[in-house]
Amino acid sequence: MNYTLHQLEIFKKIAEVKSVTKASEQLFLTQPAVSIQLKNFQDQFNLPLFEVVGRKLYITEFGEEIAETAIKILDQVASINYKSALFEGKLAGKLKISIVSTAKYAMPYFLSDFIKKNEMIDLTMDVTNKMSVIRSLENNECDFAMVSTIPKKLNIERIALMKNKLFFVSNKNYIFDRKKLKTELNKTPFIFREQGSATRLAMERYLTKNKIQIHKKMELTSNEAVKQAVIAGLGISIMPIIGIKNELQKGDLKILDIKDLPIETTWNLIWLKSKNLSSVAKAFKLHIEENKNIIIENNFNWFSN
Q1: C-alpha span between 211 and 30 (Å, rounded)
Q2: In the CATH scheme, what architecture does the domain 5-87 have?
Q3: Which partner from 16, 97, 247, 264 sits 20 to 30 angstroms from 65, CA to CA?
Q4: Which stretches of 88-169 are DSSP H helices?
Q5: What is the DSSP code string of 29-93?
Q6: What does the alpha-carbon distance between residue 305 and residue 162 come to, in Å, rounded to a whole number?
Q7: Are 217 and 191 in contact (CB under 8 A)?
Q8: CA atoms of 293 and 278, how far apart (whole Å)
Q9: What whole-number distance in Å separates Cα of residue 246 and Cα of residue 249?
Q10: CB of 164 closer than 8 Å to CB of 102
Q11: Tens place of pLDDT for every residue, the chain, 305 residues?
Q12: Same fold yes or no, 93-162+266-304 and 163-264
């Protein structure tokens, strides 16, 4: 047999996501390239690693065994690389971060210089809703989390990063009479994020406080989906401005001038107080403490203004 580490990495990912298309996207490779490597890998075994039924890919029992072995081999290779880097005086290891979906517009900027300076760090960033982020933190599945709502039940440390401002937004053709605000909003379809989203929670609090009754609503599971629905004219929503910069500049969306808005919260980098931070995590924490102000100034000056 003459399989490569690259083939092991590809098959491990395919076994994980059960899809060549998804594997190619997550590995930043073309689908044909992944398919070729999968075929070359399969050709080295007499038993099938997978089967396709209809349009679905299923990993065989033998394939599952090979995938588990691939994980162990790749972990050992990573360990060799980390040890080599450490002996050379480099920072090496894994950094795991879980963030709420709207934070994806901010966190990459806080990570960029740190990752560029430390090329031996493997970053895993899970983008999900608030409830899943807190669960990941509570189960010690990540080093840090980025949230706008501090979990009350967990004993955490935190670094306040930047403001999160939420506005009422509509598509460019929406017209409303500010003097008849409640009447206008009562008859307008509202687009919500899913249950567990911090953005949804902020939206519901605003509507309750201002006694705005919702008669028509729809629920979407991502900020991007909400944005596209508003642009298409399906309704209005309360959205974080950081995720709609381009759409505002192009005129596809507009901010509605409504009393008591924007809603302001603060994004925080949080971690368990009891967490024994790795050398990589400690270095990232120090990077944030020393550079957060200049990162915000360089990348989010438009947002603050």
Answers
A1: 51
A2: Orthogonal Bundle (1.10)
A3: 97
A4: 107-117, 130-138
A5: --HHHHHHHHHHHHTT-SS-SEEEETTEEEE-HHHHHHHHHHHHHHHHHHHHHHHHHHHTT---E
A6: 13
A7: yes
A8: 24
A9: 5
A10: yes
A11: 788 989 999 999 999 989 998 888 888 788 899 999 999 999 999 999 999 888 889 999 999 999 999 988 888 887 777 677 666 666 678 899 999 888 888 999 999 999 998 877 888 888 888 888 999 999 999 999 999 888 888 899 999 999 888 898 988 888 877 666 667 677 788 898 888 777 888 888 888 887 777 777 888 888 888 999 999 989 889 889 888 988 988 999 998 888 778 888 899 999 999 998 988 899 999 999 999 999 999 988 876 66
A12: yes
Provide the token pair at 56. Answer: 């679905």
The domain at 163-264 falls in which architecture? 3-Layer(aba) Sandwich (3.40)
Sign of the dihedral through C-alpha 215, 216, 219, 225: negative
Residue spans of the domains in the chain: they are 5-87, 93-162+266-304, 163-264
Question: How many residues are there in the chain?
Answer: 305
CA distance 53 to 59: 11
CATH number of 93-162+266-304: 3.40.190.10
Residue with tokens 């075929």: 39
Q: What angle do CA 210, 213, 217 make, to 5 degrees?
A: 120
* 146 Rama sector, left if φ>0, alpha if ψ -120 to 50, beta otherwise: beta
The residues that bridge with 255 in the sheet, in sequence order, are 169
Query: 57 - beta bridge partners?
Result: 52
**Running DSSP on this structure, what letter comes out for residue 305?**
-
